[in-house]
Structures are given as C-alpha cells and as structure tokens.
Write a structure and sequence with these properties.
It is a single chain. The protein has 212 residues and is of the alpha+beta class. Helix content is 33%, strand content 25%. The chain has two domains: 95 residues, no CATH class; 81 residues, Gyrase A, domain 2 (2-Layer Sandwich), CATH 3.30.1360. Strand 9 and strand 10 form a beta hairpin. The chain is globular.
Length: 212
C-alpha cells in the first residue's frame, strides 16, 4: 500500500514547464521548527525529473538569495516566511532552462515610463531606500510608486520616518538578491498582480495518474 507523505501546503503552481517535457511543477510551504521552508515538487516520474527539480532550486537560491537545507528543502536565511516573494522567485526560476546561466539581478533598473534610473540601497536591518537620478515632483512620485510596488510584491513595510521612499522587511534582515528580482516587476506591479491572479485561476495540479 502506497504511503501518503505530507509535503505541506501548495502556494504556487506552474501548470506546464516548457523547459522540461511540459510537466507540472508546484511550490509547497512547510514549517520546520521555527523556520518556514519550501519544497519544489512534481508528481511526474519521467526520467530527468530530479535533475529538473534541482535546477529550479538552484535558480531560486541565486535569484532569491535562498538556501538549500536538508531533504530538498529551501528557506530564506532569516527563516521568515516571505511567501509572496518566494512565489515570485519560484515562478521566475521556472522560466530558465536547466542548463541556462542564472545571475542575481542588480539593485538598479531603467524605468521605461519615466526614463529614470531607479536604485535601491540596503541600509541595514532589512531597510531599503529607493532613489532616482532625477529631481522634481515627477521623479519623487515615480520613486514612491516603485517603492510601493516593492512593498506589495515583497509584503514589505513602510518605514515610519521616510514613508515615500523607504521600505523594510519585518524580519530585520537584508535580502539583496530578492529585492533585485522584485525591482524588475515593481514599476508595473498592478499588471503583474492581475496576470498572476488570472494564471492562478487557470492552474490545476494534475493528479499522479494524469501525469506522464
């Protein structure tokens, strides 16, 4: 009789992995003592699946600053949940072929809407300041909008003293790689969230008997 293993709660899904035989990949959340941990899982038993899972996990470590611990689990170094951010790390990691080079994103982007260079600086204790190379009201508004985008994507908090351009992680730890990844999406946060909601409504995890 087959045993049932509790792999946690599913928090994200890639219905079709176009980089590996169209299998379904999912991200599960578990609690391990005081730490929140995540597992990349599929019910597919095709040859090469373990290597694909390992490649996605490796990409998540690079793109999101996560770390692999025992038994194929991932977590952030701080041990906090950061679930919304982790879901985006997982989705981004699944976009890479297993043999593709992966590098962390810089803490700077060119904002196409304003043509400003937006920079994010870590000042310690999980606090990040957002700035631009421009001046004036339009630059100030754009910086505030992108800081707000980071706040939504990463479930971050607004710094009480500089609410328009300073945000922080409640864990009190720095997550530079994670912020770099989220920064790419922050200028268009509303579009990104709508797309993810639509994708989630279509995603269905196939049962083991339905996966080849």
């Amino acid at each position: 009789m087959a045993s049932i293993v509790n792999i946690g709660r599913r928090v994200e899904l890639v219905p079709i992995d176009t980089h590996f035989k169209d299998i379904t990949l999912a991200l599960y959340r578990q609690q391990l003592h005081a730490r929140t941990v995540y597992r990349v899982h599929t019910y597919s038993r095709l040859d090469g699946v373990p290597d694909r899972i390992q490649a996605v996990m490796k990409s998540m470590c690079i793109l999101g600053g996560m770390q692999e611990i025992s038994d194929g689990l991932l977590c952030f170094p701080c041990g906090a949940r950061h679930e919304a951010a982790c879901r985006r790390v997982f989705l981004e990691a699944c976009k890479y072929p297993s043999d593709a080079p992966v590098e962390p994103r810089p803490l700077q982007i060119l904002d196409k809407k304003s043509q400003l260079t937006i920079s994010v600086e870590s000042v310690g204790n999980g606090i990040y300041n957002v700035s631009s190379n421009g001046e004036g009201r339009s630059a100030t508004r754009r910086v505030a909008a992108i800081a707000g985008g980071l706040k939504k994507l990463g479930e971050m908090n607004t710094d009480a003293e500089n609410s328009d351009d300073s945000i922080n992680f409640s864990c009190g730890h720095s997550h530079d790689a994670l912020v770099g990844l989220l920064l790419v999406r922050a200028p268009n946060v509303r579009v990104i969230l709508r797309q993810e909601e639509a994708s989630a409504s279509r995603g269905v995890l196939s049962a083991p008997s339905q996966q080849t």
